[in-house]
């Protein structure tokens, strides 16, 4: 597995534990320079990430050796008609212009149900046309659940999938779903490695006490293995051979440095077995089910 840089914080004050807000232009340059120097070669963004695409397009560093994966504007409609498809296609063209690239290395459908709704095949055909034009090299989808991914795979020849996975949410691994992707050459990108920083916090927020059994087991595994929680989160993904990229987001270059140091510090170490930390299918593993950030900070 390689690390990829997530850029939602470049366009939004994102994250349940984010205390610094949206990253400024100068810090974006420092983050990207440090990432490139460390060998990170993939940036993950989306049309829905506020001004993230604009920030990357304005950055000299972003155009210096990085591949870029972005995502379509979510539709969230009961059915996909020609007008909706046109909106998505126009949005992709805007993304290419904002990013100042000749072509996107990857384009993910941000809201996977857009492909599963009536007319979703029309949307996918339109995205394939963009690839035929040379604006997109690979197509895929961002998913939340195993069932969602399996249904998509029955209908579409995806080349990239992005999915949530961490020590508490091992559903895609333990159901054998990841093993089904490799024979088809599907590249797997994993997000939510730190569960929006919750796995790195000194204590579990009161509003997320449903996760306490797995969270406590994770703390014990890290202590027994002589790992920090940051190393523990990365160690779990490092043991998953089916994963191509782990997407990490940061608020400043110092945070990225900590992640890089933790990653390098795992080399050659015997890593703990985190199987017992799994809490899937607990609904609170999905941040969309979380209460307001103010309550998480209590």
Task: Record keyword descriptors for this entry.
298 residues, alpha/beta, TIM Barrel, NADP_OxRdtase_dom, Aldo/keto reductase, AKR, NAD(P)_OxRdtase_dom_sf
Shape: globular
- The side-by-side strand order for the widest beta sheet comes to 1-2-3-4-5-6-7-8
The gyration radius over C-alpha positions equals 19 Å
Helix residue percentage:
25-40%
Q: Please provide the ordered H/E string of secondary-structure elements.
A: EHEHEHEHHEHEHHEHHEHH
CATH architecture assignment name: Alpha-Beta Barrel
Largest sheet: 8 strands, parallel, barrel
InterPro entries: AKR (IPR020471), NAD(P)_OxRdtase_dom_sf (IPR036812), NADP_OxRdtase_dom (IPR023210)
Protein name: Aldo/keto reductase
GO molecular function: oxidoreductase activity
Domain NADP-dependent oxidoreductase: 2-264
